[in-house]
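Sequence, please.
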C-alpha cells in the first residue's frame, strides 16, 4: 500500500530564508528580460562582483574547470559555496505535488540539507556530502553518503526515486540518470530548474534546461508513461516504470 506522506508541524514548506518562488522570479528577470549581450558582458560581471564581494572569479571559473576537477576539489568547492536557500531548493508547489505522488519505499537522491527528506516517512536520503547534524535533526530518515553516478543500492530497490535540484550539477548526466532508473521499481520523479545558460551566472550549474523538451531530450529513451511540466518556475518530470 502507498505510504501516506504529510507535512510534519516542525518541517512545513515556506520557511526558507529566500523563497524558491522569489528566486525563480529573479531568474526570469535576469535570464529572460535582460538581453544576452548584457548578461555576457563585463557590466554584468561587475554587478556580480558587487553582490559576491570578491568571490566572483572563483564562482565564474567553476563551470570551465568542473570537467577537470578531482572529486576532492569538487567536494571542497561545494563546501565553500553558500546555499541561497536555507532549507530546500524545492518550491512549495513542487513539494505538495511530489508528496501526492510518492508511494512505497522512497529514496531522496541529492538530499542536500535534508529538509524535504524530513517530510517523508521511513525514507532513505543520499548525497555526496552529509552533514552529521542531519541524523539528529531528522531521526526518522536514514542518511547515506555516496555518489549519484554509483548508487550503493540494488536494482529496483525503491518504489519511488526522487531526484530534485541535483542533475543540473552533474557532468556525467546520462550515467546519473541510468543509476536513477536502475534502482527505481515504479516511479521516478525529477525536478530541475528551468533556466538558460549564460557566461556569468550566480549559480554553479553545469546542465541547463530552458524548456521541457530540453530535459526530455536528455532523458531519451522515454517510457510510454511520463509527464513533464513547469511547476512554479521549475521543471517537474515523472515517469512510471515497469
Amino acid at each position: 500500500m502507498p505510504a501516506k506522506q504529510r507535512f510534519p508541524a516542525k518541517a512545513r514548506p515556506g520557511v526558507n530564508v529566500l523563497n524558491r518562488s522569489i528566486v525563480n522570479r529573479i531568474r526570469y528577470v535576469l535570464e529572460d528580460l535582460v538581453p544576452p549581450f548584457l548578461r555576457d558582458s563585463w557590466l554584468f560581471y561587475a554587478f556580480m562582483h558587487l553582490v559576491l564581494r570578491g568571490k566572483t572569479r572563483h564562482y565564474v571559473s567553476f563551470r570551465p574547470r568542473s570537467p577537470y576537477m578531482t572529486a576532492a576539489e569538487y567536494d571542497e568547492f561545494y563546501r565553500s559555496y553558500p546555499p541561497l536557500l536555507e532549507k530546500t531548493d524545492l518550491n512549495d508547489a513542487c513539494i505538495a505535488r511530489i508528496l501526492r505522488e510518492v508511494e512505497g519505499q522512497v529514496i531522496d537522491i541529492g538530499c542536500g540539507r535534508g529538509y524535504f527528506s524530513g517530510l517523508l516517512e521511513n525514507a532513505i536520503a543520499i548525497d555526496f556530502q552529509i552533514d552529521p547534524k542531519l541524523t539528529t535533526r531528522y531521526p526518522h530518515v536514514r542518511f547515506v553518503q555516496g555518489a549519484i553516478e554509483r548508487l550503493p543500492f540494488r536494482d529496483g530497490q525503491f518504489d519511488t526515486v526522487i531526484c530534485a535540484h541535483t542533475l543540473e550539477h552533474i557532468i556525467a548526466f546520462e550515467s546519473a540518470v541510468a543509476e536513477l532508473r536502475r534502482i527505481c521499481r515504479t516511479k521516478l520523479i525529477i525536478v530541475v530548474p528551468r533556466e538558460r545558460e549564460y557566461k556569468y551566472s550566480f549559480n554553479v550549474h553545469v546542465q541547463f534546461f530552458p524548456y521541457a523538451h530540453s530535459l526530455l531530450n536528455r532523458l531519451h529513451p522515454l517510457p510510454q508513461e511520463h509527464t513533464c511540466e513547469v511547476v512554479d518556475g521549475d521543471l517537474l518530470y515523472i515517469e512510471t516504470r515497469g
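The chain has ten helices and seven strands.
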